[in-house]
Every structure is written in structure tokens, then in C-alpha cells.
Design brief:
- The structure is a single chain.
- The chain has six helices and three strands; from the N terminus they run H-E-H-H-E-E-H-H-H.
- It has a three-stranded mixed sheet with strand order 1-2-3.
- The chain is elongated.
């Protein structure tokens, strides 16, 4: 039996859920949105709020400090660039290696649909 592993819940998680998760109704019918935005008017904060639509399970969003979000995007861009640089360096280091492995040595039968691959190659 394949059991799903659920994250462990601690008091920090419960505190976050109690203080930082709101429904659309709570945000629109109260002054909560103004309170949240006022929180972000001072210094940069990493406090985030989750807004969810109770009628649609996947309708969720995060409200975060704009400057904090910008910091996160900058970090993501730097990590992406670092991975790209590592991939280019590795490719450059392997440029003179002999490529003599068969596809069957690289992939399992379940990994690749050969017919689909051949069709894609014909289309290009």
C-alpha cells in the first residue's frame, strides 16, 4: 500500500493557519486587506498571507510584501543563472568525449516511447 507522507504539523503551522490564511469573503467583507497592506508599508517583511476561495479548491493566492517578493525573484534568477552556467561548463568539458552509448544503455523501456520520439523527429 502506497502511503502519502503528510507534513508534520507543529504549533508554528497552526499559528500560521490561524493568523495568515483567509477566505475571499473574509478579505472582502472586513478591513483585513487594508490591515495587511498597512503591515507592508513599513520595512520589508517576510510575512505572507494566503487567500483562498472556499468554493474552488485550487483557487489560492499569496499576498506578500512587494520588496520581499522582488528579493525572492532575484534569488530565483541567480539560482537559474548558476544552474545554466554549470550546465554550460559541464557541456564544454564533455565536448570532446566520445558519445558511444546506445539509447538502450541510457534509458529504460518505460522512460521513452520510441514511436512518439520517432514521430517528433519526423515532424521536425
Amino acid at each position: 500500500m502506497n502511503e502519502k507522507k503528510h507534513p508534520k504539523v507543529n504549533t508554528n503551522t497552526l499559528d500560521f493557519l490561524r493568523k495568515n490564511v483567509y477566505s475571499v469573503t473574509e478579505i472582502t467583507r472586513q478591513t483585513k486587506l487594508s490591515e495587511i497592506l498597512d503591515l507592508y508599508s513599513g520595512e520589508v517583511t517576510d510575512e505572507v498571507f494566503v487567500i483562498q476561495n472556499g468554493k474552488k479548491k485550487n483557487a489560492q493566492a499569496v499576498i506578500a510584501d512587494l520588496e520581499y517578493f522582488e528579493e525572492l525573484l532575484t534569488i530565483k534568477e541567480e539560482v537559474d543563472q548558476a544552474f545554466d552556467q554549470i550546465a554550460l561548463e559541464e557541456a564544454g568539458a564533455r565536448v570532446n568525449y566520445k558519445a558511444d552509448l546506445a539509447l538502450s544503455d541510457v534509458f529504460d523501456e518505460e522512460d521513452v516511447d520510441v514511436d512518439s520520439l520517432l514521430n517528433q523527429l519526423k515532424e521536425e
